[in-house]
Amino acid sequence: MKRKQDTSYRVEEVSELLPFLLIKMGGMTRTSIKQLLGQRRVTVNNVIQTRHDTPLRKGDIITIESGRGNVELRHPKLRVVYEDDALIVVEKKNGLLTVPVKADSKETTVFSILKEYVRKQSHRNTVHVVHRLDRETSGLLVFAKSPELQEYMRTYWRQLVTKRSYVALVEGKLEKNEGKITSWLTEDSRTALVSSSPVDNGGQLAITNYKVLKESALQTDEADLKTEYSLVELNLETGRTNQIRVHMASIGHPVVGDRKYGHGNESSPIDRLCLHARALEFIHPMTEKKVRFEASTPKEFTRIFTQ
User: Fold this and answer.
1) Do the domain assignments include residue 24?
2) Gyration radius of the chain over CA positions
3) 47-48: strand order across its sheet
4) Of the residues 104, 120, 155, which one is the last residue of a structural domain?
5) Is the domain of 168 the same as that of 146?
6) One domain for residues 45 and 89
7) pTM for this model (two decimals)
């Protein structure tokens, strides 16, 4: 792929980087220029600069690396839902880790796929994980394109996110069609299992709101026994490790296919953990406007209700 020509400017008088670029790159906003800096696409005398207040001296050479453009992500387990100069929002399929478990791991992850993707656009481009999904959970994830933006979004994640909605296929029929689960979660460092307590035991407060979308009963064996399932929408007020899986198991309705907190695939019509991050709404940290993204409910979750 042919690379576009980089743009260079020579400094004629003492200045700072941001006001200099605002003059030279007519039409670009302060936000757009800061995004270029965050993407490490600006150099002063061949040294990458990310600070907008970098001092400039007469004779300095400022170079703006052009993106490669027209690069598409093609992967069977990952698709780009949205991308701009600051963020990438993707939908991952189940079975794909968000990031490597070990630093020297060679396993393909969302991070490794995106790292290769953005470097095809520009060799200086980087990606940085903002939040994670379990390996077997599918759905929406956000990555930042600079370490500064990653730190900001992680620090203010609860303030930035206005909605996190999941959909799950769970065992049984719930007593109430809508409800709120509140408990305190504690992770056992030895087993990596998270336990739930209805009273404050020093664990992390976790709150999940649920709403039943569909209910069904399927014949499961020759004895004409039937297993009941419910399709449930879940909205998080907190985002704790394994929160949904632990909460649904705690009320007697584990997520279908959950080997960790439920019955695994013993009675499951679907060979996967049936949990999907369906909707994500947050304040874009650069534009300060609300953005919303959705990933359709996997067909295998709803197919059983038509059988």
Assistant:
1) yes
2) 24
3) 7-10, 61-64, 42-44, 47-48
4) 155
5) no
6) no
7) 0.77
Q: Is residue 48 part of a domain?
A: yes
- For residue 49, the one-letter residue type is Q
Whole-number Å distance between alpha carbons of 114 and 105: 16
The runs of H, that is alpha helices, within 25-96 are: 30-38
Please tell me the distance from the alpha carbon of residue 38 to that of residue 285, in angstroms, as a whole number: 13
Whether residue 70 lies inside any domain: the answer is no
3-state secondary structure 125-139: CCCEECCCCCCCCEE
Looking at 133, 155, 177, the residue that finishes a domain is: 155
Determine the structural domain holding residue 118 and report its residue range.
78-155
Is there a contact between 79 and 296 (Cβ–Cβ < 8 Å)?
no
Strand partners, 294: 279
Question: Which among 134, 221, 224, 258 is annotated as catalytic?
Answer: 134
Active site residue 134: yes
Segment 28-83, tens digit of pLDDT: 778 878 878 877 788 999 888 888 899 999 999 998 876 555 567 889 999 999 98
If asked whether residues 17 and 91 sit together in one domain, one would say no
Q: Residue 130: which of 112, 110, 157 has the closest Cα?
A: 157
For residue 306, the 8-state DSSP code is: G
Number of Cα atoms under 13 Å in the Cβ half of residue 40: 17
Residue 151 and residue 164 in one domain? no
